[in-house]
Design brief:
Blueprint lengths: L6 H8 L6 H17 L7 H10 L3 H9 L3 H15 L9 H14 L4 H23 L3 H6 L6 H9 L8 H28 L16 H10 L5
Helix pairs in contact: 1-2, 2-7, 3-5, 10-11
Bound molecules: zinc ion (2 copies).
Length: 225
């Protein structure tokens, strides 16, 4: 289940007027994996084995369930539960009970779709850094965005060394961009707060009207369900 990085998608989403183009890309990556898990690819033995081992997190379970092909979800959950039932079972010792508890806690933290999505996103962080060093007009495209959500911003910083000799310039471009856009959003949010002063009641809200939901994206990323 390999994911191919599409640099065209990077250009496309970096031109969207939004608080985090990487959240937009992640949504597409995630949808692609959800689609695969609801269709034939999932019948491959190697994928089935991984589903049994890792399962799905609650969020991805809900996303799968919301879409078509509930039979596919049921079959995968059924084999995952069969694997889990090797952990859950009668135990007489307190030591054994603690071990069982630890195994259950560990099993509850894994998700194959989270893993696959994160793997693909790592490729995007690396590709974006490489594009900054290789593609002439990309620095301009980057600086024309409104920055990123904090989590994606942190990820881009972590992979900055993939910009090679341009890494320092890349870090400078990223940090300047993010600082500028957090300040911009902060001003918009202030406009929203000021509007609640009766003296400003007749002032137009402008972009401040949506400042709070956009700040939500900046702080926590885009909600995908
Ligand atoms: Zn994001
Ligand atoms: Zn997940």
């Amino acid at each position: 289940m390999a994911y191919h990085i599409d640099t065209g998608l990077i250009y496309e989403k970096f031109k969207v007027d939004c608080e985090c183009p990487l959240c937009e890309i992640k949504r597409i990556v995630e949808e692609q994996f959800l689609h695969e898990f609801l269709n034939d690819a999932v019948m491959e033995d190697s994928t089935r084995a991984k589903v049994n081992k890792l399962g799905f997190c609650a969020r991805h379970f809900d996303m799968l369930y919301k879409r078509q092909n509930k039979l596919s979800v049921a079959l995968q959950i059924s084999t995952r539960v069969a694997a889990l039932s090797k952990i859950v079972g009668k135990e007489n010792s307190v030591k054994g009970a603690i071990k069982q508890a630890e195994q259950i806690e560990k099993a509850g933290k894994t998700c194959i779709i989270c893993d696959l999505t994160e793997e693909s996103m790592e490729k995007y962080y690396k590709t974006i850094a490489a594009m900054f060093s290789r593609e002439k007009n990309f620095a301009g495209v980057l600086s024309s965005t409104k920055g990123f959500c904090l989590s994606h911003y942190a990820s881009l910083l972590k992979y900055a060394r993939h910009a090679g000799l341009s890494a320092k310039q890349y870090v400078a471009a990223l940090t300047t961009l993010e600082e500028k856009n957090i300040a911009r959003l902060q001003t918009e949010l202030k406009g929203f707060c000021d509007k609640h002063d009766y003296r400003n009641a007749y002032k137009p809200l402008g972009t401040s009207e949506t400042a709070l939901p956009r700040m939500r994206v900046k702080l926590y990323g885009l909600k995908n369900e």
